[in-house]
Amino acid sequence: MLKIFKPCDFHVHLREGSLSQFVLKENNKHFQKILVMPNLENPLTNAELLLKYRNKILKMNKSSEVLFTIYLNNNCSMRDLNYMRKNNLFFAAKLYPLNATTNSGSGVSDIKKMAKYFSFLEGHNIPLCIHGEHVHENDDPYEREKKFLDLELSWIIKNFKSLKITLEHITTKDSVSFVKSNKNISATITTHHLLENTHTFLGGNLRPELFCKPIIKSSIHQEALQKVALSGSSKFFFGSDSAPHLKSRKYAPACCAGVYSTKYSISNIIELFWINKKTSNLNKFLTLNGCKHYGLKYDNKSYKYKRIKNFKFQKYSKFQNDHLINYNYFKNFWTEV
Ligand SMILES: [Zn+2]
Hints:
Elements: E1 2-5, E2 8-12, H1 17-30, E3 33-36, H2 47-60, E4 65-72, H3 78-86, E5 92-95, H4 115-123, E6 128-130, H5 144-159, E7 165-167, H6 173-180, E8 185-189, H7 191-195, H8 198-203, H9 219-231, E9 236-238, H10 247-250, H11 265-275, H12 282-294, E10 302-308, E11 316-319, E12 322-325, E13 333-336
Parallel strand pairs: 2-3, 3-4, 4-5, 5-6, 6-7, 7-8, 8-9
Antiparallel strand pairs: 1-10, 10-13, 11-12
This protein binds zinc ion.
């Protein structure tokens, strides 16, 4: 048995329609706060789209504090951004390089053309969440994150010194060092990047359910992520990047990128900290570090979790005529009591 604050997930995809209702319900069980990503089929690039989505989600939401993001690209209007800011419609802006991941076809191809937007965010102390991959033709997917640090993120940091940045779902030791050695930047880490590596992903049979962007890296990188997460280091916190896709779309000739981890993510994280005897850092990784980075108040009531050994995990959750594939790693299950 252990006691922790109700966790926060600072990076989640709820998607749209009845799928979002299904996924939000699962999120409500586990998280006191969720930061929701804007890459819908029609990305949330303006006030009209954001308002519509926001109202739908808030109507369905039961218990979590939902923080919204907008999809920042060259077509965003400054007037619209100001309107959304004044009315507190969004909490952070999300930057996707063009075609980096699911629904990023409206993403940014030249980061330098985004200067006026970065100034706006910096001036109003609005956080910028970044999918940090340099995506160009013939680039090796294993090198994308490192290249982004060198070619793009370094430029942003140099030119916008007070911009608050979250480097999302980091996967490499290079990103760990980069975040540690620069001011005003923190990083989220996912469950699956903490627990999997190239060997578990494609060293035996290929596991489409683990296919995601950024792609899962080797154990050297995995170890660096585990080490920094377990240490409770204040610049690193949990963002699941949980992204539901239907089973028929995952086990398919063109498997889409995304791991749906919401159902068991907290159980997996607690078990990781438990076996490494670092449960005293769980609140930091799951609640405190993220809230501190974003300047958010949090619910500091403690909740009890108990460990069930050799639990029978539900591999699939039925959704309409299809399923979602639940990500789980460990044999033991931590559940709130
Ligand atoms: Zn994501």
